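// run 5 | inverse folding | seed 20
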């Protein structure tokens, strides 16, 4: 299975007027494997590397609602290799967890302070049994993850050309930061000084959150100016997985008006953050791109639980 073949240009189109701006949306949630999303772009590159290394095991970590773990587990099952997921939460029956079970992956649950040593132990055990395990950081972090969105940036340039416009702002949900780091690398590579890439933090606070992104950019291209990283922690609603009534109302409204599922952990929160950011920064009448980073199973989790 060549997962890179799945990475084809995603639909980018005019959504509607929101917060006095023209909002366009890029549907990375529609990438065609395991509900798509930004983790698919990253995992496709990691699995290319894994297949080159002829690994027979993949080891990664993430939460019960991790989109990354779901896609890694699915890809592993698809090519018949084993998958171990290290997680810090007991199995809340999320759709992602159920899917990981369906894919036959093994989940090891440990307290957060033991994640690091558990990963080392699992890797060592596999090596000593003669296996060839491949490790992927949570969220698909690292240079390959950054590369995924450096490449996606070119796709956005093509989208602009076919739509006959430019996006002075790109908004998206920012977590471990490689999606944003990749987009920033693409922007720097093209010298697109006019463009602001605004990551709406769904978990981390500054300065740490922004620092991780500039570190990722530096790792990838050797330098990063702090002005290149716009990581807003103003709309976190208190942290990972938390949200407020405006987020829920907006998810309802965006699904009803546009038929686009958002979720309260990532894209719903980011979409709300974008609307608030545009208003608070008095940005009007511009063409704005919202990058939909996926997470459709989380929309369903929210729907059945609300
Ligand atoms: C992981 C994730 C993000 C954040 O991406 P990072 O590269 O970790 O910043 C955003 N949206 C969704 C749906 C995700 O699963």
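// decoded
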């Amino acid at each position: 299975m060549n997962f890179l073949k799945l990475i084809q240009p995603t639909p980018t189109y005019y959504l509607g007027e929101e917060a006095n701006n023209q909002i366009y949306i890029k549907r990375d949630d529609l990438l065609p494997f395991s509900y798509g999303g930004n983790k698919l772009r990253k995992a496709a590159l990691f699995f290319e590397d894994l297949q080159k290394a002829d690994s027979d095991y993949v080891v990664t970590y993430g939460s019960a609602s991790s989109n990354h773990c779901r896609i890694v587990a699915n890809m592993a099952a698809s090519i018949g290799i084993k998958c171990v997921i290290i997680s810090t939460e007991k199995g809340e029956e999320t759709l992602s967890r159920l899917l990981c079970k369906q894919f036959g992956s093994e989940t090891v649950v440990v307290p957060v302070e033991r994640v690091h040593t558990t990963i080392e132990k699992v890797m060592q055990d596999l090596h000593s049994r003669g296996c060839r395990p491949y490790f992927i950081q949570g969220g698909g972090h690292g240079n390959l993850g950054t590369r995924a969105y450096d490449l996606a940036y070119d796709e956005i340039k093509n989208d602009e050309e076919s739509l006959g416009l430019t996006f002075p702002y790109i908004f998206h949900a920012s977590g471990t930061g490689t999606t944003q780091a990749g987009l920033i690398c693409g922007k720097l590579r093209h010298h697109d000084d006019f463009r602001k890439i605004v990551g709406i933090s769904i978990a981390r606070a500054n300065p740490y959150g922004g620092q991780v992104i500039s570190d990722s950019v530096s790792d990838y291209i050797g330098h990063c100016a702090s002005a290149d990283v716009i990581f807003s922690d103003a709309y976190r609603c208190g942290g990972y997985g938390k949200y407020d009534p405006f987020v829920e109302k907006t998810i309802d409204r965006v699904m009803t008006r546009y038929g686009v599922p958002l979720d309260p952990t990532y894209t719903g929160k980011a979409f709300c953050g974008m609307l608030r950011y545009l208003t608070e920064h008095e940005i009007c009448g511009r063409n704005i791109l919202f990058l939909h980073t996926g997470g459709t199973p989380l929309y369903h989790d929210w729907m059945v639980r609300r």
